[in-house]
């Protein structure tokens, strides 16, 4: 599948973008089918399906906050000389601020797939924005439909940050007092938190991510995965999987061998295994998959039980040693017993194995 959007400039061929493109195209190939109606959130700037002539879908709906980007996509689509491979529609509004029913009145409960392959993290600036996005996704999806995408893996990023904090405390007096190091550096990227703190807030924790090949940094928000799962469940979406891209790569390496060779030939060894630098970059991201249950086909997928909607302050100290407060008191009635995160892959987007927290929330 071609990753180029017809009529728009090619994206930079940096290492991280090549790896990201592989993961994006692999997800699309897994979920897309010839008759699927696809809604692509934040579609401009090389987002998801775009105007890909090879996309095996039946109908495309692109939504983005950028009026200029939407205008360019619409113009590019109309200028296609060859037969348009599938009907497309484009809408200009922010799906984490406005009701989709206002803009897509006849499209509710019609989408087989809703994807968000970039910018999901910006919706986690506030709980209200994240909730609105997920309500809109649920409104669009037909029963049985999937919501999937890629976002920075907050567990990986926070674990790296916590290692800096731990190193600061271990060095003690050799560092300036009352200053928590707020910068993560590697050969390929630098991550800087805007506010220095040792606790993981549920929403609005901002940081800047700058890759060595990029001239400027991008501002993101950490995605608190337990809150992501909780808000999705409230919107009628059930958790399927959250998986770090290093594991996603390993799971799909054989199936997408040809794509990997074309996309990332200089970032893997002769056996197709990620080189250390590639592993470090890919480990910054995670996939996420949710489904809108269809009660007429099968019982709904069971979402892991999180704390009640009125969560306590303890949740903000994630990761915490226990899953539920009532279990700590010896009162147990959970229908689902969760193993440690090392045994249950991806429940919190745990990042590469060496950076996983010891237990689930």
UniProtKB/TrEMBL annotation:
SUPFAM superfamilies: S-adenosyl-L-methionine-dependent methyltransferases. It catalyses: a 5'-end (5'-triphosphoguanosine)-ribonucleoside in mRNA + S-adenosyl-L-methionine = a 5'-end (N(7)-methyl 5'-triphosphoguanosine)-ribonucleoside in mRNA + S-adenosyl-L-homocysteine. Residues 323-332 have a biased composition (Basic and acidic residues). GO terms for molecular function: mRNA 5'-cap (guanine-N7-)-methyltransferase activity; RNA binding. It holds the Pfam family mRNA_G-N7_MeTrfase. It is found in: Nucleus. Transmembrane segments: none annotated. Residues 11-293 form the MRNA cap 0 methyltransferase domain. Residues 317-350 are annotated as: Disordered. PROSITE patterns: RNA_CAP0_MT (PS51562). PANTHER family: MRNA (GUANINE-N(7))-METHYLTRANSFERASE (PTHR12189:SF3), MRNA GUANINE-7- METHYLTRANSFERASE (PTHR12189). This is mRNA cap guanine-N(7) methyltransferase 2. Keywords: Methyltransferase, mRNA capping, mRNA processing, Nucleus, RNA-binding, S-adenosyl-L-methionine, Transferase. GO terms for cellular component: nucleus. Its EC number is 2.1.1.56. It comes from Castanea mollissima (Chinese chestnut).
């Amino acid at each position: 599948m071609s990753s180029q959007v017809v009529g728009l400039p090619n994206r930079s061929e940096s290492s991280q973008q090549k790896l990201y493109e592989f993961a994006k195209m692999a997800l699309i190939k897994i979920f897309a089918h010839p008759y699927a109606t696809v809604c692509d959130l934040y579609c401009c700037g090389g987002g998801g399906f775009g105007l890909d002539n090879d996309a095996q879908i039946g109908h495309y709906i692109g939504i983005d906050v950028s009026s200029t980007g939407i205008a360019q996509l619409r113009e590019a689509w109309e200028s296609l000389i060859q037969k348009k491979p599938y009907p497309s529609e484009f809408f200009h509004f922010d799906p984490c601020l406005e009701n989709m029913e206002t803009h897509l009145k006849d499209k509710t409960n019609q989408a087989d797939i809703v994807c968000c392959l970039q910018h999901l993290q910006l919706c986690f600036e506030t709980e209200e924005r994240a909730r609105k996005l997920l309500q809109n996704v649920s409104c669009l999806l037909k029963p049985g439909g999937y919501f999937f995408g890629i976002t920075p893996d907050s567990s990986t990023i926070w674990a790296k940050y916590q290692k800096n904090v731990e190193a600061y405390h271990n060095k003690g007096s050799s560092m300036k007092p009352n200053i928590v190091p707020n910068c993560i550096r590697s050969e390929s990227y630098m991550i800087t938190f805007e506010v220095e703190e040792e606790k993981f807030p549920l929403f609005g924790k901002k940081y800047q991510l700058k890759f060595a090949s990029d001239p400027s940094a991008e501002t993101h928000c950490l995605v608190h995965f337990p809150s992501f799962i909780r808000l999705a469940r409230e919107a009628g979406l059930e958790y399927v999987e959250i998986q770090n891209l290093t594991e996603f790569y390993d799971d799909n390496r054989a199936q997408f061998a040809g794509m990997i060779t074309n996309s990332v030939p200089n970032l893997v060894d002769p056996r197709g295994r990620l080189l250390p630098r590639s592993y470090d970059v890919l480990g910054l991201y995670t996939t996420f998959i949710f489904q809108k249950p269809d009660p007429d086909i099968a019982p709904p997928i069971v979402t892991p039980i999180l704390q009640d909607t009125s969560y306590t302050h303890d949740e903000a100290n994630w990761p915490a040693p226990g899953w539920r407060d009532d279990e700590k008191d010896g009162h147990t009635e959970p229908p689902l017993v969760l193993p440690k995160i090392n045994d249950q892959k991806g429940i919190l987007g745990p990042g590469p194995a060496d950076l996983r927290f010891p237990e689930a929330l």
